[in-house]
Amino acid sequence: MAATVIIPARYGSTRFPAKLLADRTGRPLVQHVVDRVRQCQRVRQILVATDDQRIVEALKPYHTVCVMTDPAHQSGTDRIAEVARELEDDIIVNVQGDEPEIEPFVVDALIERLESSDDDMATACTPLRSMEEVKNPNLVKVVCSESGRAIYFSRSVIPFDRDGTVTDPSVYRLHLGIYAYRRAFLLDFASWKPTFLETTERLEQLRALEHGKAIYVLPVDRATHGIDTEEQYEAFVKRTLGQP
Predict the structure, then answer these.
(1) Whole-angstrom distance, CA of residue 154 vs CA of residue 91
(2) With 0-12 CB in 10 A as exposed, 13-18 as middle and 19+ as buried, what is 196?
(3) Which homologous superfamily does the CATH classification assign to the domain defined by 1-102?
């Protein structure tokens, strides 16, 4: 099977304006994502799906292929689905444009999973590190079956510790926002209306579970750093440039 990685790159950002073009490392933030994915072994092509010509122009010096998409899209999934309609590859991977330290092996492992299974989509998780993180509604938790498929995703603490005996945060799993889809399933998914659980939790992946689809969840040892704020970007710059 052939796989394409699509990186949704919306110019606007409320918390950190134009963050994907932040370039204090010497290259735009989203280009760091492309560079990491270029290290993958199972990816045939990489496309940046954007809504703004400024991103296209900023990435030209790096020979990164960009595709202009409808600026009205409400989610990254809708944006990548627009691009996927014109592709023929069997597997589409959605890598977030603000994940400059994404692990290439995770992308390859998700592709390999879809190549060797009948799952509709695949994502990843990692153990949480503290009980404060477990209780944080901004960190999405996932519980899985014995076969490694998602049972549910939630901003709440799942599973709920009724007797108050759990003290090890690593028994809880943090969902990581990377997705691999079968192309045909992705196009179906994007055509479905938002579902009750999805709109209640504000978690798009619940739409797939509500339609009875199988999501495999790959366990990995650690989370990589997404960039949501200028402070997080400052820390990334220091790591990249080797500054204390």
Answers:
(1) 26
(2) exposed
(3) Spore Coat Polysaccharide Biosynthesis Protein SpsA; Chain A (3.90.550.10)
- Please give the structure tokens belonging to residue 18: 């134009």
Residue 176's beta-bridge partner residues? Answer: 124
CA of residue 59 relative to chain centroid, distance: 21
Q: Where are the domains of the chain?
A: 1-102
Number of Cβ atoms within 10 Å of the Cβ of 80: 29
Please tell me whether residue 230 adopts helix, strand or coil conformation: helix
195 DSSP assignment: P
Strand-pair partners of 144? 150
Residues 128, 131, 134, 139: what is their CA dihedral angle, to the nearest 10 degrees?
A: -70
For residue 2, give Cα distances in angstroms to 85, 114, 193.
15, 11, 28
**Residue 65 structure tokens:** 């292929």
Q: What is the Cα–Cα distance from 130 to 127, expressed in whole angstroms?
A: 9
For residue 145, the surrounding DSSP H or E stretch is none
Any idea how long the chain is? Answer: 244
**pTM, to two decimals:** 0.95
Query: Can you give the pLDDT of all 244 residues of the chain as single tens digits?
Result: 799 999 999 998 878 889 999 999 999 999 999 999 999 999 999 999 999 999 999 999 999 999 999 998 888 899 999 999 999 999 999 999 999 999 999 999 999 999 999 999 999 999 999 999 999 999 999 999 999 999 999 999 999 999 999 999 999 999 999 999 999 999 999 999 999 999 999 999 999 999 999 999 999 998 888 899 999 999 999 999 998 7
